[in-house]
Structure to design on (505 residues):
């Protein structure tokens, strides 16, 4: 009869000594995104400028997702990023970035 | 270790992709989007990666075999890299303010105490199938899988607007989520609906997708559901609505997601439309799910073809299928109706008699009488594709 009584006491004592980890708050929802390295873009003049101008806001994979596009379409995209999305690059960087995009994803005009 | 291997495989995949152009399920070259390696929270590893920052993930077309798309498989599309990674329901609030009598600020619990409404509705990105445009256009190069169908449960937006008391002269309601631009400068993602559209009793502020909480990447804890309209209006992690006494002219309405006013959203690459309007209602569309493009189909045995059709909210009246590339057509059978905003599954048995290549084509007619177009439209945004889709197969 003594043993069954002692067990719960021991367990209770064990619980009391360890400080229980606080359970996650079910009212706080969090996610962790996978740590995917951005792809390395093909090497061509202007690549470093593109990285500097574009990758603050989005992955350079955006470039690889695009089909070959004519130069005027690429120029309009870069102008849109600069003028409307206020991407953090000076206007004089636009031409070399467009040249890079045409080199790696260009199509005849 | 496991992570390192995964990353190495992933980088190797990118290297291959950079050398060889990928093709979509219809044999059309698309992009160098790779497989979605990496564990996207609450999402299936089957999704295809277009971008990791912000996350843009596409569902392979075979999963259109589900009438209700499992939450794990629904496509993911964000515009701004500052997506919500943490939502604290102790502090989360949905606010409705502006040109109203009694501004409102509600916790999720308070929203969920309002009368719930459920409906099944198609969620389709405006640019779904952009990769099929010819000539090609910039933007996320979706194949066909920026498309899903789910049961949504929430409160009517109308109920919230009645609570706040929209004042006379109200014109529009702006919709903003928890996502933010990663730096100062880019315009925050704010959309709007005209008040008349916002008061439609089928527009919901939803907290459940297929009877479960929304995955974070699909808009937890609340998402606007605008059945029949493209998902650009289905603002995720909805937190702020403002009633205006004027039309809203923010970037995402005035400059982005606009289509030619012309019938079919058509324009020519060398003669762009002078007049554009915000994209709105989905046009009628259908897709073949089985057989898949490139499949071998056995001669002399009935093959159970099936697929889906949907429109902008009148419902599907008729689906016709051709196995000779669009010369002759047969009516398909339609599965039970899950609601006028839902996928409608079509089925037709086909017993091929001759071996060789065949092209299956499908076209749907809506209850409102709209029929799919035989030839694709073109517009600079790559929006609203709804030509008959053609699926090449080989009979053997």
């Amino acid at each position: 009869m003594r043993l069954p009584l002692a067990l719960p006491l021991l367990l209770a004592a064990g619980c009391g000594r360890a400080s229980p980890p606080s359970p996650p708050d079910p009212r706080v929802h969090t996610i962790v995104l996978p740590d995917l390295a951005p792809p390395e873009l093909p090497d061509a003049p202007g690549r470093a400028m593109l990285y500097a101008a574009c990758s603050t806001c989005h992955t350079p994979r955006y470039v690889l997702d695009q089909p070959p596009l004519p130069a005027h379409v690429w120029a309009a995209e870069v102008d849109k990023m600069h003028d409307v999305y206020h991407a953090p690059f000076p206007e004089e960087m636009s031409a070399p970035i467009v040249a890079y995009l045409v080199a790696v994803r260009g199509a005849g005009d | 270790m496991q992570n390192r291997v995964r990353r190495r495989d992933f980088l190797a995949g990118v290297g291959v992709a950079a050398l060889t152009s990928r093709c979509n399920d219809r044999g059309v070259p698309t992009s160098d989007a790779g497989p979605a390696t990496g564990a996207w929270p609450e999402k299936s590893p089957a999704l295809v990666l277009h971008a990791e920052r912000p996350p843009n993930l596409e569902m392979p077309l075979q999963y259109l075999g589900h009438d209700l798309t499992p939450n794990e498989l629904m496509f993911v599309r964000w515009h701004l890299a500052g997506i919500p990674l943490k939502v604290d329901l102790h502090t989360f609030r949905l606010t409705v303010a502006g040109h109203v009598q009694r501004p409102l600020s509600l916790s999720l619990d308070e929203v969920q105490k309002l009368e719930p409404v459920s409906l099944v509705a198609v969620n389709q990105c405006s640019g779904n199938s952009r990769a099929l445009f010819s000539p090609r256009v910039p933007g996320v190069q979706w194949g066909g899988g920026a498309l899903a169908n789910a049961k949504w449960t929430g409160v009517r937006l109308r109920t919230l607007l009645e609570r706040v008391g929209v004042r006379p002269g109200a014109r529009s309601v702006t919709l903003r989520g928890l996502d933010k631009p990663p730096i100062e400068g880019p315009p925050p993602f704010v959309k709007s609906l005209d008040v008349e559209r916002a008061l439609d009793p089928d527009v919901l502020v939803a907290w459940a997708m297929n009877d479960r909480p929304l995955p974070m990447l699909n808009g937890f804890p609340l998402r606007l559901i605008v059945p029949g309209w493209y998902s650009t209006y289905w603002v995720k992690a909805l937190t702020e609505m403002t009633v205006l006494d004027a039309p809203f002219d923010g970037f995402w309405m005035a400059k982005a997601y606009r289509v030619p006013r012309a019938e079919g959203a058509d324009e020519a690459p060398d003669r762009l439309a002078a007049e554009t309007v915000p994209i709105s209602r989905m046009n009628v569309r259908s897709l073949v799910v089985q057989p898949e493009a490139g499949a071998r189909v056995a001669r002399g045995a009935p093959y159970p073809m099936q697929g889906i059709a949907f429109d902008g909210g009148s419902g599907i009246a008729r689906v016709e299928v051709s196995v000779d590339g669009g010369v002759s057509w047969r009516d398909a059978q339609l599965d039970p109706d899950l609601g006028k905003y839902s996928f409608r599954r079509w089925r037709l048995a086909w017993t091929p008699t001759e071996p060789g290549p065949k092209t299956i084509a499908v076209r749907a007619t809506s209850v409102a009488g709209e029929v799919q177009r035989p030839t694709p439209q073109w517009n600079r945004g790559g929006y609203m594709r709804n030509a008959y889709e053609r699926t090449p197969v080989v009979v053997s």
Notes: Chain B has three domains: 2-77, 94-278, 285-395. Chain B has a mean pLDDT of 91. The first helix of chain B runs from residue 2 to 19.
